């Protein structure tokens, strides 16, 4: 089946990475000082890679479109980061993290990459503690853990509800140290518009200074993309509004395969849409499912307040359907279950597109524990709720405050209302075991690649992958490539390949400016998002996907004839930035629908309505679709499918069950 080489090392799964590190070609320190590496993106994956490669001695240039690396969307991650340290002595291990990740991804991930991720996970925690990241600790001073979906152990390390922010500050500090030493050149407010290829290898980028509009050429012996996911193709998502696919898409158009684009993660615990005025959605951390119980009324169209619905009239549907995992089933399972209840008429709130996340039971439980610790072994309910609220506030206070500020409701007194929303994209640029794309010298890390999560990412694994790639994987694998490039001198940026790439980028900018149509960029983005959510969102079917492809093609033609971008290209122009990004989203949206239409099965976040069990669960077709779909861009927005066969030699493939 495979017609592409994933370059997985030979040998036993448990020893592949160890043997690889012991035998990989190296670059000696004096040669590292002559080798230039470009890092695009400064989130957890990009910042950790830039800091580590600079620490190793390479000359690094790091680019981000924000005004500071601290603004990267990694800062928005809330709940935690996974690692197989077994601090809770509850049976965790490297193998169990590996197994949970493969199973959670519905058996659509590459075994070798996932096992490596599980192996290095413990190192990440040690690295972050050494950097001073204030991870939560127990009373005795040991690092604390909590549970996340898809597991039956506590392996998630956290810093209240701001884990991403604290981890990013750790990586940022490491990066700033290298900047201060002159080993990293930092280019903020720069956007990559093209990859430059010379003799088939990635040799640099074209970037636009977003403040002045100036177009710049930058050489690198290798280029690394750590630019995040493409969830904003749906317009409304939990992603930062600036998050985009442009860097990855430009690389795709230069020959980098795009893998599994239809694998989109819908997060079950988001604040519901409140109206057409919204430009993004807000995530409530999955960590809340540790102590919050999810329910809907047993009666259809029940308009009573949550406090007025007695316990025996509540349907704790996740606990009912999945008793072994309860409220901690994986995100795709929880999201579809919420949609099913709302579609059946049991939704709550004004829109009826929401379910309750209720903390009352565990608040009272924590209160009893606190009262008992104080010697009160028979506390009244008021005391339990008062003491328990203090515990909940300590664990989740910033998340509760955020919910209150957005909704105007007090979640300590009334259950939160939540509904699924687009959150993470498991698809991305195809990479081999070395994290290299199908373009030699072009690497991709973190959410921007497809490699570790299969068809569904387990919660708290995004931060783990981003830091694993940047701190512990790429520094080894990129050296194997660069060891053969030490004789290559820096290529002048007046080389014809740089000139051609710049002309390509400038041509697109000028075209967008000169269309002078009648409709705004946001007009087209919203229409694209509506198509994608309705026909390639939480559920898809053949009819809808065929319609979506035709609608997106028509939208693309209309965009390029009627979009209005005010201003000029040689100045600060945020509408021009958005226009370029939306143009790329439109092309990506078509590929996502093509990929979803081609995959005649349901798996993880890809739910084809024609392929489901009698109980409404995803129905895989392992005989025909146990492969990575790697798409090659062809002239005229056409795509050719390549397949990487997925072989499972260490895990028995089975129908997922969380019951």
UniProtKB/TrEMBL annotation:
Belongs to the FAD-dependent oxidoreductase 2 family. FRD/SDH subfamily. It comes from Pedobacter ginsenosidimutans. It is found in: Cell membrane. Its cofactor is FAD. The gene is sdhA. InterPro entries: FAD-dep_OxRdtase_2_FAD-bd, FAD/NAD-bd_sf, Fum_R/Succ_DH_flav-like_C_sf, Fum_Rdtase/Succ_DH_flav-like_C, SdhA/FrdA/AprA, Succ_DH/Fum_Rdt_flav_su, Succ_DH/fumarate_Rdtase_cat_sf. This is succinate dehydrogenase. One of its GO terms (molecular function) is succinate dehydrogenase (quinone) activity. Its EC number is 1.3.5.1. Keywords: Cell membrane, Electron transport, FAD, Flavoprotein, Membrane, Oxidoreductase, Transport. GO terms for cellular component: plasma membrane. NCBIfam families: PRK07573.1, sdhA_Bsu. It holds the Pfam family FAD_binding_2. It is an enzyme of class 1 (oxidoreductase). GO terms for biological process: anaerobic respiration. The active site is at 331 (proton acceptor). It catalyses: a quinone + succinate = fumarate + a quinol. It is a peripheral membrane protein. Residues 525-658 form the Fumarate reductase/succinate dehydrogenase flavoprotein-like C-terminal domain. Residues 37-463 form the FAD-dependent oxidoreductase 2 FAD-binding domain.
């Amino acid at each position: 089946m495979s017609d592409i080489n994933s370059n997985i090392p030979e040998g036993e799964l448990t020893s592949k990475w160890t043997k690889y590190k012991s035998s990989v070609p190296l670059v000696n320190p004096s040669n590292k000082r002559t080798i230039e590496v470009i890092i695009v993106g400064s989130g957890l994956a990009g910042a950790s890679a830039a800091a580590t490669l600079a620490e190793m001695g390479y000359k690094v240039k790091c680019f981000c479109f924000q005004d500071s690396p601290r603004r990267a969307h990694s800062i928005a991650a809330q709940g935690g980061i996974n690692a197989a340290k077994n601090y809770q002595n509850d049976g965790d291990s490297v193998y169990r993290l590996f197994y949970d990740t493969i199973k959670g991804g519905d058996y659509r991930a590459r075994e070798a990459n996932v096992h490596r991720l599980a192996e290095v996970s413990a190192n990440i925690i040690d690295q972050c503690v050494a950097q001073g990241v204030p991870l939560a600790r127990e009373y005795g001073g040991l690092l604390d853990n909590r549970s996340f979906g898809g597991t039956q152990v506590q392996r998630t390390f956290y810093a209240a509800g701001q884990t991403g922010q604290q981890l990013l500050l750790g990586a940022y500090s490491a990066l700033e140290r290298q900047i201060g030493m002159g080993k990293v050149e930092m280019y903020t407010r720069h956007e990559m518009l093209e990859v430059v290829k010379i003799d088939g290898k990635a040799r640099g980028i074209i970037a636009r200074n977003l403040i002045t509009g100036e177009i710049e050429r930058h050489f690198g012996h290798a280029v690394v993309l750590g630019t995040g996911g493409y969830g904003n193709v749906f317009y409304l998502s939990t992603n930062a509004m600036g998050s985009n696919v442009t860097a990855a898409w430009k690389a795709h158009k230069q020959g980098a395969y795009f893998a599994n684009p239809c694998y989109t993660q819908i997060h079950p615990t988001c604040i519901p849409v409140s109206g057409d005025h919204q430009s993004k959605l807000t995530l409530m951390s999955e960590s809340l499912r540790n102590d919050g119980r999810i329910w809907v009324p047993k009666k259809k169209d029940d308009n009573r307040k949550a406090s007025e619905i007695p316990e025996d009239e509540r349907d704790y549907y996740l606990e009912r359907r999945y008793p072994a995992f309860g409220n901690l089933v994986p995100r795709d399972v929880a999201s579809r279950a919420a949609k099913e209840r709302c579609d059946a008429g049991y939704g709550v709130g004004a829109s009826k597109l929401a379910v309750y996340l209720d903390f009352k039971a565990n608040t009272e439980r924590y209160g009893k524990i606190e009262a008992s610790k104080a010697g009160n072994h028979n506390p009244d309910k008021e005391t339990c709720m008062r003491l328990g609220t203090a515990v909940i506030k300590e664990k989740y206070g910033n998340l509760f405050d955020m919910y209150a500020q957005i909704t105007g409701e007090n979640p300590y007194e009334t259950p939160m209302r939540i509904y699924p929303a687009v959150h993470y994209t498991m698809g991305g640029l195809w990479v081999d075991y070395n994290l290299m794309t199908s373009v030699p010298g072009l690497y991709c890390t973190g959410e921007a690649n497809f490699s570790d999560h299969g068809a569904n990412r387990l919660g708290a694994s995004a931060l783990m992958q981003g830091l694993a790639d940047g701190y512990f994987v790429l520094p080894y694998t990129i050296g194997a490539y660069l060891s053969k490039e030490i004789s290559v001198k820096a290529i002048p940026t007046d080389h014809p390949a740089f000139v051609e790439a710049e002309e390509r980028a400038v041509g697109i900018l000028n075209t967008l400016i000169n269309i002078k149509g009648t409709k705004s960029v946001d007009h087209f983005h919203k229409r694209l998002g509506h198509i994608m959510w309705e026909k390639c969102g939480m559920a898809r079917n053949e009819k809808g996907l065929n319609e979506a492809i035709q609608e997106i093609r028509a939208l693309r033609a209309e965009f390029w004839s009627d979009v209005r971008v005010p201003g000029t290209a040689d100045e600060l122009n945020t509408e021009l930035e958005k226009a370029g990004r939306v143009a790329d989203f439109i092309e990506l949206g078509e590929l996502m629908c093509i990929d979803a239409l081609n995959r005649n099965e349901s798996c993880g976040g890809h739910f084809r309505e024609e392929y489901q069990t009698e109980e409404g669960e995803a129905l895989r077709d392992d005989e025909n679709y146990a492969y990575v779909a790697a798409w090659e861009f062809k002239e005229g927005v056409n795509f050719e499918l390549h397949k990487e066969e997925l072989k499972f030699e260490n895990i028995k493939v089975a129908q997922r069950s969380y019951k």
